[in-house]
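Protein in question passed on here:
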Amino acid sequence: MKTFLLAASLVLVAPTALLAQTTAAKPKPKTTAATPAARPAPTAPNAAQVEARANALTENMQKALGLTPQQVEKVRQINMVSVRGVETARQTYRRDMRKMTAVVDDIGQSRLAMLKETLTAAQFDKYQRKREEKMGVPTGQASQGNAVPGLPDRYQE
């Protein structure tokens, strides 16, 4: 009886065992593009474009803020470094938006710190106001409790 059960189980299991052995293993495709060493090195940003963008920023700031010749040169250098850094970050981290955003934010903060040292207090305040308007930063009054248009003000008597 034991021999019969053993023979029956071998007959039932044998086809699956044979199929498992005869199936050819598929080789996995190599993904060399995903390895950091295989990625092409980021190219340097186009120097002419960087210089043109930095010069345009500097000229706009000169017109808007009335910069002195010494300030113009310092601001031009600040803008060159910042634009070059942003372009390099865009190329380096184009597939990692979080990292790119963090790097660009750091560049922007350091640019603001350098501009604050270069500009007078009045020039920097004017620059900040223009920058906030351009970026759509709400003003203090607009963001603090103004009634929604079309709804009554709940504090009116």
